[in-house]
Automatic annotation (TrEMBL), chain A:
It comes from the Bacteria. CDD domains: ThiF_MoeB_HesA_family. Its EC number is 2.7.7.73. GO terms for cellular component: cytoplasm. Residues 16-246 form the THIF-type NAD/FAD binding fold domain. The keyword Membrane does not apply. The lineage of its organism: Bacteria, Pseudomonadati, Planctomycetota, Planctomycetia, Planctomycetales. Keywords: Nucleotidyltransferase, Transferase. GO terms for molecular function: nucleotidyltransferase activity; thiosulfate-cyanide sulfurtransferase activity; ubiquitin-like modifier activating enzyme activity. This is Sulfur carrier protein ThiS adenylyltransferase.
From TrEMBL, chain B:
It holds the Pfam family ThiS. This is Sulfur carrier protein ThiS. InterPro entries: Beta-grasp_dom_sf (IPR012675), Mopterin_synth/thiamin_S_b (IPR016155), Thi_S (IPR010035), ThiS/MoaD-like (IPR003749). Transmembrane segments: none annotated. The lineage of its organism: Bacteria, Pseudomonadati, Planctomycetota, Planctomycetia, Planctomycetales. SUPFAM superfamilies: MoaD/ThiS. PANTHER family: SULFUR CARRIER PROTEIN THIS.
Amino acid sequence: MSELPELSDEERSRYAWQMWTPDIGEEGQRRLKAASVLVSRLGGVGGTVAYYLAAAGVGKLVLAHAGNVKPSDLNRQLLMTTNWLGNPRIESATRRLKELNPHTEIVPVAENISSENADRLVSQVDLVVDAAPLFSERYAMNEACVRSRKPLVESAMYDFSAQLTTIIPGRTPCLSCIYPDDPANWKREFPVFGAVSGTVASLAAVEVIKLVTGVGTPLTGQMLWMNLREMDNRKLPIERRSDCPVCGSVDAEPSTDSNLG
Amino acid sequence: MRISVNGETHDVKEQTTIAQLLSELGKNPKFLAVERNRELIPRAKHSDCALEEGDELEIVTLVGGG
């Protein structure tokens, strides 16, 4: 990120309160403007991640989500609106994000992540947030991120539990290190309040902001585990597997001046 | 001997390993993280790790909802 884009006066006004963060300032905001992020699925987690990233002024969001808006989406998928029932989710999401922040470029992709499209989509961005409800999609995304050495924020929830970790390929455990096998009993549909999916989404968006700006310490090599029933939160250390078929032979690359390295 | 699992007291036999405990609790170790006295025990060591009186275990089920 050698040549950061300039901010307009309108952008300075829009982002003023976050630019007051002492170690963000105008340079941090310009880093956010220069950044591009892929969000896999715009459900209760990913939609809220995208909303906060657009609000924060991330320059480009590549958004992948198939299907049409259903009534049962509306308890948590905050980018989907009642008037758009039966119509493509990606259109509702794009409209909502544009209403919030017309400065953020939206690249809508009306597909879910698969091994066919993952490399192509990952190649368009600096980093990725995974919020897919199916492990086949999460594994495809993980493999593409490891191949391209792009950071991946893994955000997931179930019921009142939430889990979050930031994967830096070659330096931290990848998804396949943490989950050696596809959880056989996992189902696409799961119990969820929007307030719970939105909680882990907000934290995932914070991780992106930290990775892009270099502020703070990313949640690497650890999994934040939240039990919102008891408000019991802890960080569990997680380890790379030397025999991991996805990242076992990947070495770390030199880091850069941001947390993206 | 007495141990605690996710805050609840359990009685287990001496020398019970984490792998045996998971089996007794009917849990599949592939989708779990097990923390013993706040230290994560890697899956590969579940069979070697014998529990001791007073151990505090947290068994975390990994989730994937988005």
